[in-house]
Amino acid sequence: MTDYPQAASDEAKRALKHKEENGSSCGTSVGWNRARQLANREGLSEQDVKDIHSFLSRAKVYDQTKFTDENGKEICGSIMYAAWGGDSMVKWAARKAAEIQENKSDMNKNIEKRAATIEAAQETESRMVTGYAAVFDSDSEDLGGFIEQIERGAFKEAIQTSDVRALFNHDNNFILARTASGTLKLYEDERGLKYEFEAPNTSMGNDLLEMIKRGDISQSSFGFTVDDDEWSSKEGIAFRKIKKVKRLYDVSPVTFPAYPEASVAVRKLEQLKQEELQRSEEKEQVNTAEIDMKLIEAALNYHA
After folding, report:
1. What is the pLDDT of residues 219-257, one digit of tens each?
2. Domain locations in the chain as residue ranges
3. Where is 173: in which H helix or E strand?
4. What DSSP string describes 222-254?
5. Percentage helix, strand, coil, to 5, in the chain?
6. What is the DSSP letter of 68?
7. Which of 45, 53, 132, 159 has the smallest number of CB atoms closer than 10 Å to its CB?
8. pLDDT in tens, 124-159
């Protein structure tokens, strides 16, 4: 992000100029690197924005706007507050940090998770972990009010564009493999979407292998978002066909498979129910109108 205020860059330059002319002993290398980043209008990552917001929101109380007091002594709080962009930057960073959090919340609401099986190679020395994240053209269990099928080829594009991780219990601190590094393999075959990875020689990787071979861990949870789906109703049961997956996130061996949490799916299910209710009411109104018309005709015929 480079759309931060020019005033923030000017404040950073002011702090750098003070340091250059007076040999300031204030701050740390992190703070002065941040000042140079802002002064040079370099791009900021999401983490940069969070760090800036965190620092400035705490440092504001130490800002006295001037860099030295009446005795010529440096006011480090003011200097470093300016080095990180000052008042205009704290307002911008607060707004951006809120947007980042909101976007992530929206994204997480749309991520759907499904239980998948794990298959460990039977050989004692094997470290390969394999399983199917999804099976094509097969009815799921009841996912909280609807039955789901995944169309063959639904993952084709997402496999090519997604950087998927294998995690333990969806914990980013326990990464087991990754498609970008070539350690996690994902591909479609005739049955469905298959994954495989070699458990890393780490404490987590070794523990996972032992738990899988003992049967303590036997399922995984797979996260994805949907790009295209179709909904229908048969005999009062809602059916969903996933035609195209937008993005794959992670496949995680888990202690307890996550119950499907899909606000998008739930919203569409509620929409389907509302549409069915509306059709039912409209049909009932039509039937009522037909009955009324027949009664009127019968009355007219009686009095004719």
Report:
1. 877 788 889 988 888 777 788 899 999 998 888 888 876
2. 6-108, 111-261, 272-304
3. strand 171-178
4. EEEEEEEEEEEEETTEEEEEEEEEEEEEEEEEE
5. 45, 25, 30
6. B
7. 45
8. 567 888 888 788 888 877 776 788 888 999 999 999
